[in-house]
Amino acid sequence: MGALHGADADIGDLADVVTRFIAERLTRSPLGRTASATDMRVALDGAITSGGLGAAQAWSLFTDEVMANTIGIDSERFLAFIPVSPAAAAAWVDAVVGTTSVPAESWLEASGAVAAENQVLAMLAGLAGMPDGAGGCFMSGGSIGNLSALAVACDQRPDRRIVAVADTAHASIGNTLRLLGLTALTVPTGTDGRFAGNALAEAARGRTDIGIVVGSAGSTNAGLIDDLDGLADVADSLDAWFHVDGAYGAATLLLPEFAERLRGIGRADSFIVDPHKWLFAPAGSCALVYRHPALAAAVHAQHGPYIDVFRSDGDEWNPADFGYQLTRRATGLALWFALVLHGTDAFAAAIRRGVELARYAAAAISGAGPHVSLVIEPELSVVLFRRKDWDRAAWSSWARRLLDDGIAFVAPTTWRGEPVGRLVFMHPLTSTSLIDEIIDTLR
Ligand SMILES: *Cc1c(COP(=O)(O)O)cnc(C)c1O
Q1: CATH top-level class for 93-341?
Q2: Who has the most CB within 10 Å: 227, 325, 401, 403?
Q3: 238 close to 222: Cβ distance less than 8 angstroms
Q4: For 266, left (φ over 0), alpha (ψ -120 to 50), or beta?
Q5: Between helices 171-180 and 142-156, what is the axis angle to 10°?
Q6: Atom of ligand 1 nearest to the CA of 140
Q7: Are residues 2 and 52 in contact, defined by beta-carbon separation less than 8 angstroms?
Q8: What is the DSSP string of 87-141?
């Protein structure tokens, strides 16, 4: 029986093999493929045995079956959903975070990691224009970040159970409202696809039951930033909690040219941004920031004789107090390290590249001929477009063909009831020639 731990751990040359795998992956990520359930059952049949298969065989199964049948969301050819394109430095340090299980729930256990994570949160809060004292924690993703923030909002406005949201709000907001027993007042976005202050004012006229307003700093489907300043005005007048879901788009806080578009985000009571989206951290990271973190601690701090030890002397900041998660990876450390290594200018340039690629694609679609057209001018890095005479089935077979041909992973979507094409650009190495190639397939 092989040893699991220590110098005698029975892992063959896994250390070298895995290091090489990571290094290669960070040079070039394959697009991957999706297998059928039957194929996967056969491929993995008998993998878990009483005696173990040993390092070599286990690693082959892992690479040849598990990884090979997994889409490379970090590939420069992954243009669906919201991709994850980790910076090399972030990915390497995330491997260390995973290896060491940095116990980042409390200052007592992880003062170094928590201080570094808080430095990033303070930077983000500062860029947003929030006052000193704003703060929060890193969580595992935007969905749990939205849930955690809205649980605090709900606690602050216990008698008003209506939440004003746009028809473009992310699916996690709907689920959050259901979990918290809140009810959505869904406000239609205008022709420009944005949730506007005057539309909110109109929907709220005469109502006294709205306790929360949720805006988006980058809607997921079309990548459009809501009228945050206008929403903040109305939220103020309603005395409602204002939450900004910036999971995807609030990364543009790093771009001065987006400052005007994002105006109002600093007036929020809470906002989120996912480092695993446009801040180039590996999957599993959301930055959650509150204007008044103490309000969050009153909701989320877990108590018990085995936990309250956190809160003895030297208690500076316990990330677990600010969201619905106790044991946690230090999911902000990879971003912190990459920021320290590269500086914010390199991040800004990489984010800006996504915006430029979207504009390139939009221009190319507009010039490609009468069979294709833009749905709406891109603002962030999402491009929506029409193809004459294509129904949902035609879009699906197009997406399947691009994947089977190893060109790209794309996912069509729906815009106001109409099936349309969608491309999302996050990986700074996606080439304009790939974009041309994809647009060519729309003929
Ligand atoms: C992706 C996304 C979320 C959900 O984040 P996860 O990290 O996938 O849980 C929430 N809101 C917006 C706007 C998003 O784009």
Answers
A1: alpha beta
A2: 227
A3: no
A4: alpha
A5: 40
A6: 7
A7: yes
A8: -HHHHHHHHHHHHHT--TT-HHHHHHHHHHHHHHHHHHHHHHTPPTT-EEEEES-
Q: Is 426 in the pocket of ligand 1 (CB under 6 A)?
A: no
Q: Is 223 in the pocket of ligand 1 (CB under 6 A)?
A: no
Ligand 1 pocket member 357 (CB < 6 A): no
Q: How remote is the CA of residue 73 from the centroid of ligand 1, in Å?
A: 15
Give the strand pairing for 162-166 and 372-374.
unpaired
Which strand ranges, in their side-by-side order, compose the sheet holding 413-415? 372-374, 382-387, 418-424, 413-415
**What residue ranges do the domains of the chain occupy?**
1-30+35-70, 93-341, 345-440
Distance 61 CA to ligand 1 centre (A): 31
Task: Please name the residues in contact with 330: beta carbons below 8 A apart, sequence gap of 6 or more.
Answer: 97, 102, 104, 110, 113, 114, 116, 117, 138
What's the one-letter identity of residue 399? A
C-beta 172 within 6 A of ligand 1: yes
In three-state form (DSSP H/G/I as H, E/B as E, the rest C), the secondary structure along 229-253 is HHHHHHHHHHCCEEEEECCCHHHHH
**Is 226 close to ligand 1, i.e. is its CB under 6 Å away?**
no
Is residue 127 lining ligand 1, measured as CB closer than 6 Å? no
Do 195 and 215 contact (CB within 8 A), yes or no? yes
Distance 222 CA to ligand 1 centre (A): 13
Cβ 145 under 6 angstroms from ligand 1: no
Identify which of 73, 172, 226 to mutate to test ligand 1's pocket (most ligand atoms within 8 A of the CB): 172
Q: Please tell me if the CB atom of residue 149 comes closer than 6 angstroms to any atom of ligand 1.
A: no
Task: Evaluate: CB of 220 within 6 angstroms of ligand 1.
Answer: yes
* Tens-place pLDDT, residues 29-76: 999 999 999 999 999 999 999 999 999 999 999 999 999 999 999 999
CA dist., res. 422 & res. 415, Å (int): 10
CA of 142 to the centre of ligand 1 (A): 4
Residues 6+ apart with CB under 8 A from 103: 109, 110, 327
| Tens of pLDDT, residues 96-119 | 999 999 999 999 999 999 999 999
SS3 state at 353: helix
CA distance 100 to 118: 19
327-372: pLDDT as tens digits = 999 999 999 999 999 999 999 999 999 999 999 999 999 999 999 9
Q: How many CB atoms lie within 10 A of CB 194?
A: 24
**Fold entry, domain 345-440:** Aspartate Aminotransferase, domain 1 (3.90.1150)
